[in-house]
Design goal:
By secondary structure, the chain is of the alpha/beta class. Helix content is 49%, strand content 14%. The chain binds zinc ion. Zinc ion binds next to loops.
């Protein structure tokens, strides 16, 4: 069996009844308990819940959410308008190619997603996409555009996406495994967050 090390933080609050356990997107574990809850009981509770904690962390890792995508605020302010211009231009071009046109394209500095598509047909894209290799950036835009047709990750969705990105499965893997690191490295290379 593989060894998993886990970081815990115990949060004591008088508003808390019993012991509550949350696994955060970065894989750390937060325990909330009343100040009078004895440490011994918290420890026993944790021991009982260890299989669940390990399973949840593994799920999070499989989804690739462990590295936060969020860039520094200063960098976001500096690149926001340039990123919006680039991503809108790129989206327009890819929309023509696919025939799916979003109502609007907005950007943000999110911590866990490169992009999303709302039911209203609005695309939300991460500004740090501009620091990724162009084919990965295009993959994210095309992925979100295909959600305008299929609002899910069904077989039909992937079949549609693979018409525009034949290597979509490996692109997805690279993006989730290395995307955050690649973007950070490129941002550092360009001195994006240097004063
Ligand atoms: Zn999706």
């Amino acid at each position: 069996m593989a060894t998993v090390s886990v970081t815990y933080a115990i949060h004591r609050s008088t508003r808390c009844r019993g012991i509550r356990l949350t696994v955060k997107p970065d894989g750390s574990v937060r325990i909330s308990a009343h100040p009078r809850e004895p440490l011994g009981r918290i420890k026993r509770f944790l021991e009982e819940k260890t299989p669940w904690i390990v399973k949840t962390i593994e799920k999070i890792k499989a989804r690739g959410l462990c590295t936060p995508l969020r860039g520094p605020d200063m960098e976001y302010r500096r690149y926001k308008s340039r990123a919006l211009l680039y991503l809108r231009t790129r989206t327009k071009k890819l929309a023509k190619q696919t025939g799916f046109t979003p109502k609007n394209v907005r950007i943000r500095n999110a911590s866990s997603r490169w992009g999303s598509c709302s039911r209203k047909g609005e695309l939300m894209l991460h500004y740090r996409l501009v620091f990724l290799p162009p084919d990965l950036c295009d993959y994210v835009i095309l992925h979100e555009l295909c959600h305008l047709m299929h609002f899910n990750h069904s077989k039909s969705f992937w079949a549609l996406l693979s018409q525009f990105v034949p290597a979509c499965v490996s692109m997805r893997r690279i993006l989730h495994k290395d995307g955050a690191r690649l973007a950070s490295e490129a941002a550092a290379h360009y001195g994006a967050n240097q004063p």
